[in-house]
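Q: Hi! First time doing this. I have a protein sequence and I read that you can turn it into a structure. Is that right? Here it is:
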Amino acid sequence: MRDVSVLKKSPLLCYATSITPYSGTVQCAGETQVPIVCGGVKVMPGDIVVGDSDGVVVGSPSSFEKIIDIAENIVSLEKTLMSGMEQGIGLHSMSNYNEHLKARQEGQTSGLEFRKKRLVSFKGIKKMNFD
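A: Yes, that's right. Below is the predicted 3D structure, encoded as structure tokens:
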């Protein structure tokens, strides 16, 4: 990436692994609408590329349609967890962490789950025990 001082003022968010003073070439017309590999990931024409400071996601429109409900549920759960942590409730106490850890130590299959059902509202609650 180059012209960073200009890009910082732009509403367009840009992320790059490095900065360079060099511009691209004008000697080759290049190609459009062809598959490329970016960061080891194949990106096809028509794919959606979404990125922020936490990372980049690439997928076809149909793949995003399949996961949008899951993504929205994750965002909702994370907001609930952040609300609890802001009020001093530990992350482990809002999950099945102790049960999960015990099961894994005993060689059993287990998944870490958050107790969203029990986190309806934290307003006015100083401390809750979820065990």
